[in-house]
Amino acid sequence: MAEHAQKLRVGMVGYAFMGAAHSHAWRTAPRFFDQPLVPELTAVAGRNPGAVAEAAERLGWQSVETDWRRLIERDDIDLIDICTPGDTHREIAIAALEAGKHVLCEKPLANSVADAEAMADAARQASAHGTFAMCGFTYRRVPAIALAKRFVQEGRLGEIRHVRGQYLQDWLSDENAPLTWRLDKSKAGSGALGDIGAHVIDMAQWVTGSNIAGLSAITTTFVTERPVSGELVGLGGAGAAEGPKGPVTVDDAAAFTARFDNGAFGVFEATRFALGRKNAIRLEINGSKGSIAFDFEDMNVLQYFDSGDDAEAQGFRRIIVTEPVHPYVANWWPAGHGLGYEHGFTHQVVDLVRDLAAGVQPHPSFDDALQVQRVLDAVEASAADGSAWHPIA
Ligand code: SOE
Fold this sequence. Notes:
Layout: E1 6-13, H1 17-32, E2 37-45, H2 49-59, E3 63-65, H3 68-73, E4 79-82, H4 89-98, E5 102-105, H5 113-127, E6 133-135, H6 143-153, E7 160-168, H7 185-188, H8 192-208, E8 212-220, E9 225-227, E10 245-247, E11 253-260, E12 265-271, E13 280-287, E14 290-295, E15 301-306, E16 317-320, H9 341-358, H10 366-384, E17 390-391
Helix pairs in contact: 1-9, 4-5, 5-10, 6-8, 8-10
Bound molecules: alpha-L-sorbopyranose.
């Protein structure tokens, strides 16, 4: 870590699962990558004084605030990192950008297109003054996905024809899993669709370099009421079967067919009820010359089919994405040793800090995230409309 490098002083809002993942990334990035600015974990904000103090101690933050507004007022903070539910993103992000702070905001960008538009407007205005905003679609930074993007750019797949995207989890399968904020539309915006579908939509658009132009969708809620209390195991688990229940106000699963700007066909699915699938974010792309396939449950592997191979030797090959020639990998362990979930967050910090130091817009920008929000909105509108085709404006 360069001792005399200039600092990037970070103020983080929220400290639960995502806050912990981001804290780890801010701490780790400068220890493995040469960074033009060294992140400093300056302050973390949360409403509960005892809990935020405990989190600061555990996650490595130097000071605490109990109001995010105070974090934004502080002169010793350069960037606001938003790790709170979607209903808070708009207010925090716009206030931070207007105060001249860079912003990293968790996904999905917002709970509505109107909020996302306001945020993207604020980000465009701020960028004219060298203040930048980025949205945390971290899977772009999984080495195998970055390699897939490189293959598409190099033309190895040829013309893209099919895009198959899935994000499958199972932590809501038990009908007594407790009612958490992720099941409350006023906080989360939507269910499986925004929480995990947003990731695979962003991933597909980014890897192919083409946006979804229109779609037809279905959504469902399998379990409409859940216990209001109970012990969480991971994000779900089994709550009290007896006792009060409250309404689930979001989708449990969403699926849609789509057409991309480049003419490719898309088929997408997002669910938190796929028993046995733990974090299966999957992408398969078939082009005129080759194909790729990825599954996060085997995240250090990219499958690649090259139609130029000898006919007798043709087949999907498993590229083990653990070699120094692969994106991000050279800075980690000796060849062959593999990376995990947290590395995507670290790479996100590495790229963000590099771009901020260079004064260039990091990706995904709020405009990129607004495009994802439009797709989420179209899915809900189409499902409500009997699966009618909805073009993306
Ligand atoms: C829960 O479904 C969740 O934690 C998402 O909120 C994250 O964005 C995803 O990376 C893993 O699953």
